[in-house]
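Here is one chain, start to finish.
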Amino acid sequence: MCWHLMVRRMRKPKITIVGSINMDLVTITDEVAKQGETVHGEDFRTLFGGKGANQAVAAARLGADVSMIGKVGDDAFGSRMIENFEANGVDTKGVGMEEDTPSGIANIIVSDKDNRIIIVAGANGKVDRTHVEHFSEIIKESDIVLVQFEIPMETLRYTINICKKEDVPVIINPAPVTALEGEYFKAAAYITPNEHERASLFKMREDGLPEYYDKLITTQGAQGASYFKDGREIVMPPKSVDVVDTTGAGDTFNAAFAVGIAEGKDIEDAIAFANTAAGLAVGKIGAQSGMPYRAEIG
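Its structure:
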């Protein structure tokens, strides 16, 4: 075993998340209202969320040394979200509080074991290049950086450029779907779309393979996740689980995959680890409430 891999396995992997921080406003209902219609819901909950925050908490629970770079608003939600990071062992030096700005929120309707989500960016829209640059040393010291598409794309490009310059592997989780120039996907170590995001973002090459196929880890819901080996797509199914709420399953997968790769696992073992973590996450309501701890996976 090479020396740097031995050192990595002797310590916690250092993962930095650059992304969104939201409060999830979750309504649980048997019936989704049509336009102009009012229906009775079953329950309402206020839960911590945001793709970036979800991935940070999941990675920390799975044993990584995690730093979060992002912003919250100067409201009650913002203070609570910072406290939640600290309670989960996430370093918050890179989390700013934006004045006169609400925190980001996600309005989530859970019905028939699936979800519909509306996002309001709030302070997430103020995560600019200057903020990331101020905490660039955190990025430079990372084993892996994980980004998503819920902050301004200019900031995302700048973050990827820092990673490329400093030779820090970056995982791009292209959600929600937004166009990004190919040079940034080329700079990624891995790209982790779901099936719909992959179809929207990546063209098929002349040989029948999708663009950047060698970097693609595609999440496929109940079917598990896939990767490409020797020009062939291999699907790795998850264990059978009882699904309660799929919110946050993809974020748990991404965090667990990042942890696995940072620990030195190969792609197959990292995907298997991530499938197991995501399977445990769907057993409870809410993005973060169901995210597993390392002891639950082994």
